[in-house]
Amino acid sequence: MFHTASTTIRLRMLLPLCALCVLSACTMAPKYERPGLPVPVAYHKGEGLYGQGGQELGWQDFFTDPGLRRLIETALANNRDLRLAMLNIEKVRGQYRIQRAEVLPTIGASGEYSARNTPAEFTATRERGIVRQYTASLGFSAFELDLFGRIRSLTEQALESYYAVEDDARAAQISLVAEVAGMYLQCVADRELLDITRATYKNRKGQYDLVRNKFNSGVASQLEVSQAQSIMEEARSNVARYETSVGRAENALALLIGAPLPADLPNVRKLSKLNMLADIPEGLPSSLLERRPDIQAAEHRLKGANANIGAARANFFPTIALTGAFGTMSSDTARLFKGGAEFWSFLPQLSLPIFDTGRNIALLDVSEAEKKIAVATYERTIQGAFREVMDCLVQRANIGEQMDAESALLKSTSTAFTLASARYDVGVDSYLNLLDAQRSLYSAQQSYISTKLLRETNAIQLYKALGGGWR
């Protein structure tokens, strides 16, 4: 133990240091003011106005289909891109803690031993001797007094970077949820298209067999046989194409969830069988954009750039670094902590920039330019997000009418195909009209499924554009 008699000296050394640490709590960074939203205060939808706010939903409430929720949970646990984003948070958190540690001195203990052999001709007694010395000390080295807030500004910048990376990870999670939902919808739509195409091929093959039999009986012409065969082969080709699409969609879904598709996952084959999306409430203010993770990340980077200006300004002022230690020394280890001679050292160092060929001015110019860049990036991110939401709302305002039109088209083409088949069977109409009706029906079926997929995907895109929900 060190002697109690030296306590007063140590306190006299530490009290000024603590006072200077308190005084150094201020920074020279300019006062942060959030830029205004460079977009209208509300979203417009046709003649109405979204402006009163609605209900906030998490992804568990937004996506209600049990199979999809299971896939999303698996993706959140296993997706490698999301895992990298979360690991990046841990990395930046560590970097912030390293920077924050510079605000306070690093105190360490050390012990030394030295032995020196002095020749007799260099000693006062003309006798050769060995001098041994043991030293134990406690102190700090090159601790910078942050009188002008340079270190605190850098610490604040590191903290804002940490917050930004956290928001980046949240944005990655929202994007992953939306991608899994979108790919699941695509997979179901491809299965439905495949089933329709298989049914179409079966129907056309039956028509081809019928026309060929008529040709063998001398009732149909070779032209009609060729036309029936061509439309049948077209359907067979489409079957192979949609089988490929289903396989690729399932592979993409497996990649997103980071695991094979569950064997007991329901094999849903119709979009109408899914009840997976919650209704979107009326009243969506544009201030919802502020909760988007990418916008929050852009603002944190703006705050970090603002803090960097304070660090650059502090470079113009003196820097004071302190090195100090106290301890005991003795020629015998037994007396080192008992009767050893106490010692202390205190070494303040002042550094004042006088001529640096404009380096500090250039650093300040760079930091101010970086803040302007961060402001422009923040505003651009908001404008891009506003457009994404507006595009979703404009599409959603018209998707209902489009669905009604597609439904009516499907009904009319189905009726036309039935009539054309009946007229051809009784010999009233030509086979060319039947072929045209078949193609029109198949095209209407494809368009109807694509429009249903578009309607469901629109809700997913709006979920993502609003930052994972709404309030």
Task: Describe the protein in words.
The chain is an alpha+beta fold and 471 residues long. It has a single domain, classed as Outer membrane efflux proteins (OEP) (Up-down Bundle). The protein contains nine helices and six strands, in the order αββαααββαααββαα. The protein has helices spanning 7-23, 59-62, 66-78, 80-100, 150-216, 222-257, 293-314, 359-425, 431-465, and strands at 43-45, 48-50, 107-118, 129-145, 319-330, 341-351. The strands form two sheets. A four-stranded antiparallel sheet has the order 3-4-5-6, with helices on one face. Strands 1-2 form a two-stranded antiparallel ribbon. β1 and β2 (48-50) form a beta hairpin.
List keywords for this structure.
alpha+beta; 9 helices; 6 strands; disordered N terminus
Structural class: alpha+beta
Total DSSP helices: 9
User: Could you name the CATH topology?
Assistant: Outer membrane efflux proteins (OEP)
Q: Strand count, sense and closure of the main sheet?
A: 4 strands, antiparallel
The ordered H/E elements are HEEHHHEEHHHEEHH
Oligomeric state as shown: single chain
Rg calculated over all Cα atoms: 38 Å
The count of DSSP E runs of length 2 or more, i.e. the number of strands, is 6
Mean pLDDT: 85
In one word, what is the shape? elongated
> What is the CATH architecture descriptor?
Up-down Bundle
β-strand percent reads 5-15%
